[in-house]
């Protein structure tokens, strides 16, 4: 992957993650704060790429959950 491609992937993941982590209620705020703490730890331990991989996994799981919800109605 070129540096430009990496930059584009990084921007996409970060934008999608920010949108997905928009809190709806107070409980969400607590969960998001906990996840941000975990991400800081991962970034310290595994670097920027490790944090991006963690965000991508969270986004993937979120989309899988949404798909399951949508398929239940059919």
How would you describe this structure in keywords?
74 residues, mainly alpha, 2 helices
Q: How would you describe this protein?
A:
There is one protein chain. The protein is mainly alpha-helical. It has two helices and no strands. The chain has helices spanning 3-20, 26-72. Helix 1 packs across helix 2 (26-72). The longest helix has 47 residues, at 26-72.
List strands and helices in order, with pairings.
Elements: H1 3-20, H2 26-72
Condensed summary:
This protein has 74 residues and is mainly α.
Helicity, as a percent range: over 70%
Record field, number of beta strands = 0
Given helix and strand content, the structural type is: mainly alpha
Number of helices: 2
Beta-strand content bin: under 5%
Beginning-to-end CA distance, first to last residue? 39 Å
The helix/strand order is HH
Low-confidence stretches: none
- Mean of pLDDT: 90
The main sheet comes to: none
Radius of gyration: 14 Å
Could you say which overall geometry the principal axes of the C-alpha atoms support?
globular
């Amino acid at each position: 992957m070129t540096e430009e491609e990496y930059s584009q992937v990084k921007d996409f993941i970060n934008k999608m993650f920010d949108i997905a982590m928009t809190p709806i209620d107070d409980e969400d705020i607590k969960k998001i704060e906990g996840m941000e703490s975990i991400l800081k730890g991962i970034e310290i331990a595994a670097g920027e790429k490790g944090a991006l991989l963690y965000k991508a996994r969270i986004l993937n799981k979120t989309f899988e959950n949404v798909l399951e919800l949508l398929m239940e109605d059919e």
